[in-house]
Amino acid sequence: MKFFKTVSAILLGVVLANAGEVEDLIGELGSDDKVKRREAARSLALLGPAARAAVPALIKGLDDDEEQVFFWSVTALAKIGPDAHEATPELIKRLKRSERRYKDQVHVRIVHALTQIGTAAVHELIGALSSEHSSVRLGAVRVLGNLGFASREAAPRLFDLLADDSESVRFSAGSALGRIGDVAYPQIMQGLSAESALVRTAAAHAVVWIPANSRPAIHLAKRLAKETDNETKVAGLNALTRIGFDGERLLGLLLPSLDSEEPRLRQEALSGILSLRPNSRSAVPHLIDRLVAEDPSKRKQAIDLLGRMGHDASVAVPKLIIGLGQADEEEKRSIRNALVEMGPASIPSLLNSAMEIPLTKLLGETWQADCIGGIGIQAVSSLTNSLKENPGNGAGLLSLVALQKIGDKSPTTRQGILPWLEHEQAVFRGAALRALVASSTKPNTLMPRLQAAMGDSNSLVRQAAMDALASLGSSAKGATTALVNSLDDKDAAVQLSAIRAIGKLESDDSALAERLVKFLDGANPETRLAVVVSLGGFRRLPDSAVNSLVNVLEVEHAETQSNVFGALAKLGSSAKPALPALNSALHHENEVVRTSALKALAKVESDKGRLLNALQAKLDDKASSVRHTAILELGELGSDARQAGPALFARFDTTDDRQVTMKALRKIRVRDVQLYISILNNEEPLVRFFACQALRRAGKNAKPAEEELRKLQKDSYDFVRREARRALESIE
Asked: What angle do CA 497, 501, 503 make, to 5 degrees?
């Protein structure tokens, strides 16, 4: 007994304490200080039902000019719940489109509060359904829907609103009827059978909330089979899909809609079929039939849908592969994407398709290898099994090529590849070599195998060894001598691969560089490009090599020229002999050449004055890539580029240049306040924010910007207003 007396005393004390606190908070709600009013409303919200004595004061808070006082008052009424029922009429009034800044938030908060008040608000809410204001009707409908069965007496009036002028009200009324449950079935059934398509569409939204085997759902399915209105079809199919209606029956409704001229209906049908998985398999035969349709849009639709169905549509793989023979490039891409989406189930057919392809062709980039590579690690098991089952045909070779692309590092994969290094046919030995390097965790341990392969009697194997060494990069330095010897190989393809591999070594060997330079004389474009790229991989080049690179610029081949500039850029100031050629290339007709020349000039030119002039001269280039390079390189000069400030700020007039200009200016830190003032009215909010940020850092020196900063207090973007305010504070 003593225990219960103690507990009662404690509870009474809490109640009395709360009562005293509530009285104090009610008093502060009437304060002239908006901060006190806000904190009072917030504290009452935290007290929840214990704050019921404050309901009249909180109702007054609904008229407060301060946004936060209003929001916390609504929140407090929601927390008080049913005991706040006297606030219902006032809350409903405020469902009218508010003049407050955050209109949508106001609506959401009030709907929540009325929902928390619950059944005590139903009568008032039913009355609000007749309001002349659509926002009031919408809010009332949403609350009644939230209350579900408790608002069952509202069902007849909600039915009337299925024909409301407002689409939002109609759809919400349908949803509310569904949430009320089976007592509203008569109204839902009546709505689904209405003459008006608008009413039928709204009623379909009710089905989302009811069981899949309910009378309205079955009735809707029957109606949709004959429905002519597209909006109703969309709503109905969406509802039946979401409730998990009978898969076979639903599929019968979805398939015809794939041919609709209405995009939304086609999309709903696509989504609906996908949602039926795994029952969507029954759609596959219908989709396969569409693969031979005359209309390319129907074929693409079927291809995309089969792909998105993944493994469930694997039976379509052979037909998709056959379709590649007649498809255009866009359709081929769609088919390949679909095959990748289907995953391992595609692999047997892909491997079989390689049987008719010449082996040497399979070594290159084939669509089969791309597909299997796209499937990735999931394909490995099928590929290793293929290596066991296909000792010397296209399927076996494709398996090796695909394993190279995937690069699986498991011991099982490596063990599956090793026997193929000894295959009697060179094409298999070469492919195995590439696959083994790609699958090795420590590829440099394969160096003995690779060096041995460099002496193979077949050029395909030697070339594969070169390519493998190239993939190892600087780790292949131990094979430098063998690579140099391969420059004398009788096979041009092997020579080319050796040149490319040497460029990956990151060497500083002058003699080796000069050896490569000799290949430039009379070389074909492919070899010349390979030599230039390879020289670009050296850490240091002799003067003779630099001069040779400059001479290559006379060749009118944009890719080669760009790579020359890339190589010169790596050399930095040691490439000074190339400066005349670099400056000349700034006026080249090809924007890629101009861009790469400008990047190289920024690294080679040591005279900052000349570099500044060159970079500024390209700020008005017609190509954005050139302009952006010039802007960014000016940024890299930091404070040394301050004289370029006016020219850079002029770039804010060009939409494409704004982001890179801000990036550069953050590094340069131009101090001219007037320049920042000039962009405070820029149409891009991020630019205005950037200017405010810079002016804030300027502190009292930003005084001339004060007037413009005050104007930004009314900016439509909060982050701009906030930064403008911080800038003003720094001035003060």
From this structure: 120
Give per-residue pLDDT as tens, 478-498. 888 888 889 988 999 999 999
Write out pLDDT tens, residues 40-90: 989 998 999 999 999 999 999 888 888 888 899 999 999 999 999 999 999
What is the DSSP track for 501-523? HHHTT----HHHHHHHHGGGTT-
Above 60 in pLDDT, residue 8?
Answer: no
Q: What are phi and psi of 30, to 5 degrees?
A: -95, 5
Task: Report the distance separating Cα 599 and Cα 317, nearest Å.
Answer: 48
Q: 3-class DSSP state for residue 561?
A: helix
The one-letter amino acid code at 96 reads K
Are the C-beta atoms of 219 and 192 separated by less than 8 Å?
yes
Q: How confident is the model at residue 724 (pLDDT cuts 50, 70, 90)?
A: very high
- pLDDT over 60 at 13, yes or no: no
Burial of 700 (0-12, 13-18, 19+ CB in 10 A): exposed
Residues 6+ away with beta carbon under 8 Å from 143: 111, 114, 115, 121, 125, 151
Evaluate whether 433 touches 451 at the Cβ level (below 8 Å).
no
Q: Are 485 and 512 in contact (CB under 8 A)?
A: no
> Under 8 Å CB-to-CB from 575, ≥6 apart: which residues?
546, 568, 569, 600, 603, 604
In the chain, what are the domains?
A: 283-351 (1.25.10)
**Which tens digits make up the pLDDT trace of 666-695?**
999 999 999 999 999 999 999 999 999 999
Q: Which of 668, 612, 663 is nearest to 639 (CA)?
A: 668
Burial of 458 (0-12, 13-18, 19+ CB in 10 A): middle
Q: What is the DSSP string of 294-328?
A: SSHHHHHHHHHHHHHHGGGGGGGHHHHHHHTTT--
Enumerate the H helices of 181-283 as residue ranges: 185-192, 197-207, 215-224, 230-242, 247-257, 263-275
Q: pTM of this prediction?
A: 0.62
d(CA 555, CA 560): 8
